[in-house]
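Supplementary notes for students who missed Thursday's class. We covered one full example, reproduced here. Read the sequence, then the structure, then the short commentary at the end.
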Amino acid sequence: MAKIHVKKGDTVYVLSGKDRGKTGEVLRVIPKTNRVVVEGVNVVSRHKKAIRPTDQSGIVQMEAPIHASNVMYVDPKSKRPSKTGVKVLENGDRVRYSKASGNEISTLKTKKK
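Structure (token representation):
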């Protein structure tokens, strides 16, 4: 499993692929394969079969995962893509921050001793 620089709920910019230039919210993170699912990006058609008699079968549009290296965090302050980093505060908390503006994004889990 790899560490991924974005989390669920982050707004990201797509760097490469057929949806290059789009922005969207991260819906799901899959650390085992180092992939993320982004809202409105890499939309594919899936043929769905009805499992129960009440279900509707047909062709369903859904977002497929893309590699995490193909997305970049969007800084909410400047609305531009930015690298992210981790810094340790004086009180020992680890914080994710945007390298472009220096704004703190979120607090990370700290290991208890």
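Commentary. The longest strand covers residues 23-30. Strands lie at 11-14, 23-30, 35-38, 43-48, 58-63, 66-67, 71-73, 84-88, 94-98, 104-107. If anything here is unclear, bring it to office hours.
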